[in-house]
Design a protein that fits this description.
169 residues; alpha+beta; four-stranded antiparallel beta sheet; 8 strands
Length: 169
């Protein structure tokens, strides 16, 4: 009987500890950012993002920026590319590059190499998306237009189900 009581008590303690690690009801991004402990702050921000507390703000083109409420800086953006399989083989994975450039100068801001594991049958079309971190900008002008960056996505290689690879898009 003691053993059973001990097991029940340990289960309750573990459950309470797991529940305490979740974000508190009514927790906000602002509250999490004000937390002085960096580890606790990161855990609260992760819990808030998993709970869907981040807003999505769509920019022109295919660049989507995720931003916390009340004007906090963007932390991620969604890169996307539409792929059509013109080959007679089934596509297994696609390697592609997402490049961010400054709309005024054309200077490259960030470059991301991405591999998407997906199945695309011959003649079919599929939209691939990837959430990526926003690179840190050195200088931002007050006269910057609404378009923060231009996004260009390019396929670098395709791997087919039989193991063959093609570098021609």
């Amino acid at each position: 009987m003691r053993r059973l009581t001990f097991i029940v008590a340990m289960t309750l303690i573990a459950t309470a500890a797991a529940y305490a690690q979740r974000s508190a009801p009514g927790d906000t991004v602002q509250g999490a950012l004000r937390d002085p402990d960096p580890i606790h702050r990161d855990e609260r921000m992760i819990a808030l993002s998993q709970a869907g507390m981040a807003n999505k703000v769509e920019q022109p083109g295919s660049l989507m920026v995720r931003r916390a409420p009340y004007g906090f800086p963007a932390t991620t953006f969604n890169a996307q590319i539409v792929v059509t399989n013109h080959n007679s083989k089934i596509i297994k994975s696609i390697s592609w590059v997402a490049t961010l450039t400054d709309p005024n100068t054309g200077e490259m801001i960030g470059k991301y190499d991405i591999t998407s594991e997906t199945r695309i049958s011959p003649g079919k079309k599929k939209k691939l998306k990837k959430s990526l971190p926003v690179p840190q900008f050195r200088v931002v002008s007050a006269r910057t237009p609404r378009t923060v960056a231009n996004l260009k996505s390019t396929i670098t290689s395709v791997t087919f189900e039989d193991g063959a690879t093609s570098s021609e898009p």
